[in-house]
Amino acid sequence: MSVGFGFDLHRLVAGRRLVLGGVEIPHERGLLGHSDGDVAVHALIDALLAAAGEPDIGSRFPDSDPAYRGISSDVLLAKVMDDLRPKWAVVNADVTIVAEEPQIAPHREKIRSKLAERLGTDRITVKGKTAEGIGPVGAKEAIEAFAVVQMEPRR
Questions:
Q1: Which of 23, 84, 89, 34 has its CA nearest to residue 62?
Q2: Where does 71-144 have alpha helices with state H?
């Protein structure tokens, strides 16, 4: 077994779509990033790569490469899974999205289902938390996400 951990944080800005866990969520602001800024998927990708002993998302998909400008993080996750799937099976994953708004609970099952499909396992949990008004997330300036993944080598 191998375990990986991932984290990401992006600033909320006007004029961008809000995408979390591969799901577009109605909101007046979205996450600033070279890609679509999906912090949940970025944290998950970093956890997957860490568990596989691979370099992080920034090494694999550098923000200096114009090919990734505006790209869907779901596409990046699919590429990572295409690379990892021959050698690794995802046993389970846990993703926590920290945001004052929007509330994650109404979107949790859609996010969980989307990520489960991508990872090839139903053993995935998605949780929404708030920052209790503390820091940039608490001030509604940003959203952050944490992810833990357990994988096993394919035989």
A1: 34
A2: 73-84, 108-119, 135-138
pLDDT at site 155: 84
- Residues 6 or more apart in contact with residue 155 via CB below 8 angstroms: none
pTM value?
Answer: 0.97
Confidence band (pLDDT; 50, 70, 90) for 26?
very high
Q: Does CATH place domain 2-153 in 3.30.465.10?
A: no
The 3-class secondary structure across 109-128, one letter per residue, is HHHHHHHHHHHCCCCEEEEE
Q: Helix or strand or coil: residue 21?
A: coil
Paired strand residues for 154: none
Quick count: other Cβ atoms within 10 Å of Cβ 14?
Answer: 8
